[in-house]
Write a structure and sequence with these properties.
The chain has 118 residues and is mainly alpha-helical. It has 2 domains: 8-39, no CATH class; 54-115, no CATH class. The chain is 41% helix and 5% strand. The protein is built from 5 helices and 2 strands, in the order ββααααα. It has helices spanning 54-64, 69-73, 77-85, 91-105, 108-115, and strands spanning 11-13, 20-22. Strands 1-2 form a two-stranded antiparallel sheet. α1 runs antiparallel to α4.
Length: 118
């Protein structure tokens, strides 16, 4: 009566009804419910909707943050120019190191919310 349904390596279960569907399916063809994305086994950080990477921003803040590279990358051109103008004081380097830590500690959702707009 209660059969155990087997799924293949390229399949997943529908989140609504439990039917076996293709792993890449965004919508279940049997019930029409939108499916959640399959979690990736390798997650190297958030990528915002506009393609900006949290890890790339953090690395730019660490290595080139004194010159404002991470600010330019994240679309904050005005702050990037301020960092460039004051790079000789080393204050931007200290601020960038703090921002490096904050970027690494920031959740993926918060990063996407803050920097995901084009």
């Amino acid at each position: 009566m209660n059969e155990m349904v087997q799924k293949g390596s390229d399949e997943k279960f529908c989140s609504e009804r439990g039917a076996v569907i293709k792993a890449k399916a965004e919508i279940c063809p049997k019930c029409g419910v939108r499916q959640l994305p399959v979690p990736s086994s390798v997650n190297l950080g958030a990528t915002a909707d506009n393609g900006k990477s949290k890890i790339a921003a953090a690395l730019l803040a660490f290595f080139l943050g004194g010159f404002g590279a991470h600010k330019f990358y994240l679309g904050q051109i005005g702050w990037g120019i301020v960092y460039l103008l004051f790079c000789w004081t080393l204050i931007p380097a200290i601020a960038a190191f703090i921002e490096f830590i904050l970027l690494l500690a920031m959740s993926d959702e918060k990063f996407n919310e803050k920097y995901g707009k084009s």
